[in-house]
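Page header: ASSEMBLY MODEL / two components / 572 residues total.
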Amino acid sequence: MTAGNISRPTVIAIVMLALGAGRVAAGQGRGTPAPAPSAKASAPIDLTGYWVSIVNKDWRFRMVVPAKGDFFGTLGGIPMNAEARRVAEAWDPAKDEAAGEECKAFGAAGLMRIPGRLHITWQDDNTLRVDTDAGRQTRLFHFGAARPPGGQPTWQGESLARWLGLAAGSTRGGEGNANPATGGPSYGSLEVMTTNLRPGYLRRNGVPYSAGTAMTEYWDLFKEPDATDWLVVTTTIVDPRYLQLSYETSPAFKREPDGSKWDPSACSARW
Amino acid sequence: MMINVHTDFLQTACMHVALALLVVLTAVPAFAQVDLTGVWAARNHEDLEGMLPGDYTGLPINDEARTRADSWLLSYQAMPERQCIMYTSHYVVRGPQSLQLSSDIDPISGRVVAWKMTGTIDRTPRTIWMDGRPHPSPDARHTASGFSTGTWLGDTLLVTTTHLTEGLISHNGVPSSNQATIREYIVRHGDHLTIAMILYDPIYLEEPYLRSKTWVYDPTVQVPPEPCEPVWEIARPAGVVPHYLPGTNPFIREMTGKFNLPLEAVRGGVSTIYPEYRKRLRDQYVPPATAPVLTPQGARP
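Prediction written out in full:
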């Protein structure tokens, strides 16, 4: 082969190389597929550990149980409809206690905004477990295929989870970042979709959500240079019965070094 | 068999296609993974605290910040020489505004050189430089928008802002200093855009202040420009600056009266923003018998 000539086998080899490389790049290589790694093994971010609520928004709605009928702030509030308002204005904590429903404000749609601490662990390779000291609740985030529908609604409902983003070792880096070679930094989010909820309260003073509520959360971890880890949970709650439009919040947490401040307390309808 | 590529057009084209495939199929994105452009509608479902005078709840502020805020009178902003002073960049997560994001793209490389963020907190778009330029000297001019640079961390845009002027952390006069810096994480999840802003201020904060807010994509929302032309809103003698002297602000106890909250609770500070504080309130808080009626500062004479 000279500079001006090229053999046919060489051309074919280049074509095959290109196509083969493309398949590899697209993750479509043939052969026996390797078993999918577990959610725990493929986690792009590590959420495990202890986290404390930062009550930096809606302080007077969260730090205390607001007065009956106190639903809106000066410029913001839950997009509740007239039916929700009617129900909330009839809120009676004594009735909840008598009915054994002290945990109505501690269901999944309200729980993350109640001041307290989270303890996040792996229950198994494909189930992330979130315990709260406030109300002693447990949320389970199931990765993988959707579980069969049905079952009794519960305070924490049924949560399906998946990782979004880039696992450690991905070659997809960001401009200005070091190339995240194997073991390098990885980024991503946790998406959690929750349904099959037992009706509860969005706010401690009886703003309701129904059994038809669906909640989508994105758990994002932000690591600051001063070694502080922040967790922000972007939350969208849809409830055709009680909300005029989706309810958008983003509660925040800060990582703690250990569980020394873990302080479990039972559900309370009054506090 | 040897062939002459100068005379065999088909073979030459085949080789070019193969090389193009090699480049395209093995390429990985090197920059700007997520498109942030569009109009993002505010959803103010979490209250905009700070609209009532003396409401410093949720803020990790120190005594110096409290003292400044206690002296604040909203009509200060109505002075002709102050009407066009912009809110500083960190107010984006406090204010009620929608956002418009656009990008400046290098026509040769296709790279995003800068993101532009327009909202009603400022009259001109805020620029977030993505071309790797350094921040200027600490002695360079400070502005309301500050100087912002961005870098991608996976699909999250991290924005670092310096060179801010003094500004407001909340609408009732809680100040931020010209030494404040911001780190913002901007994340897009489908039609939702979340900004988690961390404000560092060695002058007025006891610890970094994190605040987050979510917007929803909505191309029907208008984010119009807000040209500012000062007018005389309130007649005052020349040289008078609206203010309260220390200890004379009559509205400081308004929150405590309306909500039965102890004064120390609404004065803010690190000790009031963690769950432990809830336990301290438990023995002293009695909810008001009826829901209070709120009158935002702006509706006062």
